[in-house]
Amino acid sequence: MGVFLLFQIFFTIATISFSLHFFSTLIFSCWVLPIRAYKKIKKNGFTGPIPSFPMGNITEMKNSMNINVSSSLNVVSHDIHSTVFPYFARWQKSYGKLFIYWLGTEPFLYVAEPEFLKNMSAGVLGKSWGKPKVFKHDREPMFGSGLVMVEGDEWVRHRHVITPAFSPCNLKAMASLMVEPTTKMLDQWATLISSGYPEIDVEREITTTAGEIIARTSFGLSYQNGNKVFEKLRAMQITLFNSNRYVGVPFSKWMCPKKNLEAKRLGKEIDQLLLSIIDARKKSLDIGTSPQKDLLGLLMEGGLVDGRSGKSLTARELVDECKTFFFGGHETTALALTWTLLLLATYPDWQNQLRDEIKQVIGDGEIDFTKLADLKKMGWVMKEVLRLYSPAPNAQRQAREDIKVDDLVIPNGTNIWIDVVAMHHDPTLWGDDVNEFKPERFKDDPLYGGCKHKMGFLPFGFGGRMCVGKNLTTMEYKVIVTLMLTRFSFSLSSNYRHSPSILLSLRPRYGLPLLVKPL
Ligand code: HEM
Questions:
Q1: Cβ within 8 Å of residue 471, ≥6 positions away
Q2: What pLDDT sits at residue 418?
Q3: How large is the ipTM?
Q4: What are the Cα distances from residue 146, in Å, to 322, 325, 424?
Q5: Which helix (H) or strand (E) holds 230?
Q6: Which terminus has fewer CB within 10 Å in the chain: N or C?
Q7: Chain-centre distance of CA 325, in angstroms?
Q8: Where does heme bind (predicted)?
Q9: Considering Cα of 350, then 353, then 355, then 358, what sign does the dihedral take?
Q10: What is the 332 CA–ligand 1 centroid distance (Å)?
């Protein structure tokens, strides 16, 4: 009886201390820490919309989305900032281009001011900026500890190993891997058209093809389990796409447990398959077979070391980089191509100009990849598309130390949300024709398109963390657009409803049905 009583007392004390510890940790991390961070940022004079606990400003953001969902669907207006981000457009009017807003219990410094961006990067080491920890849970299944996720010295090491793999010489060797999947897609379009279906939802088709291309250029599809990895990566993407959680709200990461478990399961299977590919490649390297010219082959070329040598990545790290290339690389490229087709269908004159250029530079035969750089007008069109419909509509950072910007101090831990769409549509940076499709603005100023500030055009991000796949994606874009325009012409279907929306990236909410005609 005495022992039982003692046990009961012990159990009660343990439960009370656990509960006290749990609730004090909860209050500290969900209340005290965020308020402390908020006060520090506010000291610099920033204001912003009033948050509520525990949602921050999320409810207001969601509500304003509902209001805008049905605005002028049939008119192709490129003035998209106030429809895509109605809350930011509204808050900008009240608080300017720098203000604080809250995702759950996480304060974010909103930035749509290029001069501030320039100053916050000037003289600061790239590794002083990390990525907001609050997004890590969602991104972990896709990127693991790949380049997008790593920080500090680890990021420097990964970036040094990976950058050379994307050299122009290596990329040219990968160009041929892009032709076959694109031709397969175009052959399917030809079959559909000849069976009496001239209207094709090109967004879906292009996304699948871009996925296949990035899988081929990252880890190869012909090799053993490559195809299985590709299928599972697609399945994981669909799973994650369907889970919609409230970022920053306490415990929200435990919402959608079924989807989380499914993503975890797929993640484990993908890792195993990729490890088996790496293992098989390592064995063939050991017997003197020459390495494959895809990204994985190039990363392994330096010699696979399991320890943390300065020059190579471990097998585990290679797995994460392959996933990173897939998730970071294919949807962005597919959306750049999708928006391009919308704009070329809307502006047939530009469609014809590009076709003429292709004839002049490439001719009618097979693509000579060394000539892609001479497709100048196509380059302007790509940049203008990325300006008006940036597939990466924002960039984020989190300070890893106190960072001085002019007279202000950005405290360690501050989340930064850079509104790229706002800057790309800002008339004070681009002039009154900001919302017009004018690729020629890149003719005299190929890098910045006449933007008044060098940090005002950021389709691939900025600073040391700028997109590593920029040249790969430019080459892929030119190969695919060339192949498409030499076989077909495109016009807008009356079923198209113009509703650019944020669904992970900036995409056409109702797809992109186009009327496709063989030439
Ligand atoms: C139109 C296509 C693409 C767009 C618009 C795009 C955009 C971006 C943006 C905005 C960033 C973040 C930069 C920053 O935070 O400052 C980024 C980073 C990155 N992108 Fe891309 N990207 C594209 C294609 C690709 C491709 C094809 C690959 C790979 C094969 C790729 C791999 C990466 C990686 C690994 C990073 C992380 C770089 C780092 O943190 O050091 N991207 N990209």
A1: 166, 168, 171
A2: 97
A3: 0.99
A4: 8, 9, 28
A5: helix 226-242
A6: N
A7: 11
A8: 467
A9: negative
A10: 8
**Other C-beta atoms within 10 Å of 389: how many?**
27
How far apart are the C-alpha atoms of 118 and 378, rounded to whole Å?
Answer: 29
Whole-angstrom CA distances from 56 to 64, 95, 247 are: 15, 17, 10
CB 233 within 8 A of CB 212: no
> d(Cα 88, Cα 99) in Å, to the nearest integer?
10
**Segments in 439-506 forming alpha helices (H):** 470-487
> Is the bond preceding residue 54 a cis peptide, omega within 30 degrees?
yes
Least Cα distance to 301 among 322, 325, 319, 284 occurs for: 284
DSSP 8-state code for residue 28: I
Report residue 302 CA to chain centroid gap.
Answer: 28
Report the C-alpha gap between 274 and 280 in whole angstroms.
10
Which pLDDT score is estimated for 220?
85
Q: Which of 321, 460, 472, 478 to mutate to test the pocket of ligand 1 (most atoms within 8 A of CB)?
A: 460
Whether ligand 1 lies within 6 angstroms of the CB of 474 is answered as no
Q: How far is the CA of 287 from the centre of ligand 1 (A)?
A: 35
CB 394 within 8 A of CB 112: no
Mean pLDDT by 10 residues, the chain (519 residues): 78 81 68 73 86 90 67 75 95 96 92 94 81 85 91 91 91 90 97 95 93 90 73 81 68 73 89 90 84 88 50 89 91 96 97 98 92 97 98 94 86 93 98 98 97 97 94 97 98 93 87 96
Phi, psi angle pair for 449, to nearest 5° = 60, 30
Report CA(192)–ligand 1 centroid distance (Å): 34
| Ligand 1 pocket member 481 (CB < 6 A) | no
With a 6 Å cutoff on the Cβ, whether 381 touches ligand 1 is no
Q: Which helix (H) or strand (E) holds 349?
A: helix 348-361
> 395 CB under 6 A from ligand 1?
yes
CATH number of 45-518: 1.10.630.10
264 Cβ closer than 6 Å to some ligand 1 atom: no
Q: Is 322 assigned a ligand-binding role in the annotation?
A: no
**Amino acid letter, residue 167:** S
